[in-house]
Design brief:
This protein is of the alpha/beta class and 367 residues long. It contains 11 helices and 16 strands. It is globular and about 70 Å long. The relative contact order is 0.18. The strands form 4 sheets. Strands 1-5-6-7-4-8 form a 6-stranded mixed beta sheet, covered by helices on one side. Strands 9-13-14-15-12-16 form a 6-stranded mixed beta sheet. It has a two-stranded antiparallel sheet with strand order 2-3. The protein starts with 5 loop residues before the first strand and ends in a 7-residue tail after the last helix.
Length: 367
């Protein structure tokens, strides 16, 4: 039997606007959503991974939604063909049920913990939670400051931007990608993150997300050279023409876009600059150089000193913010240890088995 494919991305991010939640977008159109409740270390990620891997083994394509705050954890899985989702519904991922019971079903993994044991360690849990909250607040304040520095970086290029050339480039690629193609349907639009600021630094899933596509456009440029604006305009055209579009927001500044994918057309176009810098490695890959097309020649050289200063400030601020994320993760790990010690994982196994049986009533999962 053919195994299914796994698409990896983030639906939540540690950004300059705090924790940014795009979960609802990935849940659209599902008939059954299991919302997992429970503290750290209660087995939510393991449950998601176990069932996801079984579905893949059974030949179903799935989406794994990764956790931006813990590189080894999952926040959810979606099986699009089956219209089933399993998601971590604990803070900060607030999942608002549309049809509780009929579509969304709460799964309480807290049923497997020893409440008395946790009660005995209440002060320790409170202290660790407070430390984690403060570390996140510092990280988010740091990312906000890093974004302000990035704005200073952008100003140099914006002042040297040829907007007429940018408009011409946008029109050129709109005609190239779409021509006169149009579909008589409403587009499905998915909002996601291709990467995230994590405790281990910047992580992205560009190779996985663009695998198997016929054409990939690598946008090169500088901060403020119009990469995100180009993507926004092309996404709007795709929606207008009735094509489904995956819109990948910047994991640092969610108001910016990093990538759009139109799978019906077999096309991806993405910002291929650091921290998600890639270079063409297929015959069909193509570069789109915004600096060359839209920025006044010699801008890099003329402003070299100012650019170096702002880049250094940006790198230092980002490094400090990531360090606060790592600190928050260390508090989370200590909390996990406390909860793991209080858990009866045989109950979690029973809950996992129950969900498997419900899904198996709709499909056959290979053992």
């Amino acid at each position: 039997m053919k195994t299914g494919n796994i698409l990896n991305f983030y639906a939540g991010g540690n950004t300059a606007q705090g924790f940014t939640n795009l979960f609802d977008s990935s849940l659209q159109g599902l008939d059954r959503i299991y919302i997992l409740k429970g503290g750290p270390g209660t087995g939510k990620s393991s449950l998601i991974r176990t069932i996801g891997n079984e579905l893949v083994k059974g030949g179903y394509d799935i989406w794994f939604i990764h956790c931006a705050s813990d590189n080894d954890s999952l926040d959810g899985l979606i099986a699009p063909e089956l219209k089933i989702g399993i998601v971590d519904g604990t803070a900060p991922h607030v999942i608002e049920p549309r049809l509780p019971g009929a579509v969304e079903q709460y799964v309480n993994l807290g049923a497997a913990w020893d409440a008395d044991q946790l009660s005995d360690r209440r002060l320790e849990i409170e202290s660790l939670n407070a430390g984690m909250k403060e570390a996140y607040e510092r990280a988010y304040a740091g990312f906000a400051e890093t974004l302000r520095i990035h704005d200073d970086w952008e100003k140099i290029y914006i002042a040297n931007m040829n907007y007429k050339a940018a408009d011409e480039l946008t029109l050129e690629y709109s005609q190239l990608l779409f021509g006169v193609k149009k579909q008589d349907k409403k587009s499905r639009v998915d909002h996601r993150f291709l990467g995230a600021a994590t405790p281990r630094g910047a992580v992205d899933f560009v190779p996985n997300l663009t695998e198997g596509l016929a054409k990939r456009y690598f946008i090169k440029g500088r901060a403020g050279s119009g990469k995100s604006t180009l993507l926004k305009k092309l996404a709007a055209t795709a929606i207008e023409r009735g094509f489904d579009v995956e819109i990948y927001h910047c994991g640092f500044d969610p108001n910016s876009l990093d990538m759009i994918i139109m799978r019906e057309l077999g096309i991806a176009m993405f910002d291929s600059t650091a921290p998600h810098e890639y270079f063409p490695d297929r015959d069909t890959d193509e570069l789109v150089d915004m600096y060359e097309r839209c920025i006044k020649p010699g801008t890099d050289e003329l402003h070299a000193d100012a650019l170096k200063a702002v880049k250094d400030r940006y790198a230092a601020s980002m490094k400090q913010s990531i360090a606060y994320l790592a600190e928050a993760k260390s508090y989370h790990d200590q909390l996990e240890e406390i909860y793991v010690q209080a858990m009866d994982f045989s109950i979690v196994d029973q809950i996992t088995k129950s969900i498997r049986q419900e899904i198996a009533s709709l499909v056959i999962i290979s053992d």
